[in-house]
Amino acid sequence: MEIKDINIDTGEAIIEGEIFHLETREIKGNRKLISFNMTDTTDSMTVKVFLREGQYEDFETNIKEGSYIRVLGDIVYDNYSNHLVLMLKSLIQLEKKREWITIKIRG
Length: 107
Prior knowledge:
The protein has 107 residues and is mostly beta strands.
């Protein structure tokens, strides 16, 4: 699904894209709130996930700004940011897609 097609009625969505603007915040109960934006070049969206202490280390080691990923999650309205966000259920790290453009040059 392209990010530009996501709306409040989408429910569950799978999107692919590149991570930018990754943030981590400590919250109660030895948990962390991870939020990052991702883009698929049609639009961008914020992804959020709550992680326990042991889960965070794996996430931090593997996921960075610039990582290309596929995510599955629920599309919800976030009252804190006043935007639609994807609440992460699953994440797969991918190789970044390369697009080739062929240009024909007369000569």
